[in-house]
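so i finally got all the pieces together for this one. its two components total, 281 residues if u count the protein bits. some of the lines might not be protein, just check the labels. i wanna see the whole assembly predicted at once instead of chain by chain like last time, that was a mess tbh
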Amino acid sequence: MFDKFIGNRVAQNYNHIVRPSVDIYETENEVVLCIEMPGVSKETLNVELQGSNLTIHGLKKKDNIEEKYHALYNERHIAVEYRRDFQLNSEVVRQKITANYVNGVLKVTLVKSQEAQPQKIAIS
Amino acid sequence: MTNFPIRRNHDLTLTPFTDLEALQREMNRLFDFSLSRPGYDDTSLLGGQWAPLVDIYDSKDNLVVKADLPGLSKEDIQVAIQENILTISGEKKQELNVSENEYLRTERFYGSFHRAITLPTEVDRTKVQANFKDGVLELILPKKEEAKPQQIKIDVK
């Protein structure tokens, strides 16, 4: 609870860094991350892999309405930095990392290297 | 003789209490939200429900409502206005081709949602514009002519 309390709220209000929500699933040869970052401009999205450390980063900037109109009520993040780090525990093929941003969700697909994929062992 | 307190007509931003009031608001907000994640009500006995986070903006001619709906497509969202109540509803579905045991982590909320917002002014329902981009729904609601702020000229004699 305190992790959430300090991690989410305080960071949101004071540092303007938000930890986005993520779903991760793993199949035989892929690991897929779906990260919720609504309203982020595509050109600020950044996916970086350094060693086994995967960093996802994107900026939500104020749009015309958020900038100029008078806000009567506000719950959303208007101008924030989304950032999240992941520690990968299986080797991935660096050249095959793909990321696409659809409907406010960034989907990062990591292809596991041959060694990390399950090997079928024939029993004689 | 009674002493009447004199209220000076000074700029609001200069009063010493503005900062304190802002701090109080911020503290209230902190405690409201600390026990549950924003947009998610886990106090309900029937299990958690989620609702999208919304903003309401105001200008002279329009009201604008924005809602964060990441992971939904245009077809999953319904918007309706009845009298001055705007409702946004729909269903967010998990990826179909992924089986339960393949998930390592699920932090996102799924399921149907319903959010009703009472609009502060009357709007012209026939001229509502809806855009959906990058997971953000934007509704531009033109105010009715009679709801727009009007300047009343008073003749001083």
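The interface with chain A takes residues 26, 29-30, 33-35, 37-39, 53-59, 64, 66-73, 94-95, 98, 102-109, 120, 132, 134-136, 138 of chain B (CB under 8 Å).
The longest strand of chain B covers residues 85-92.
anyway lmk what u think
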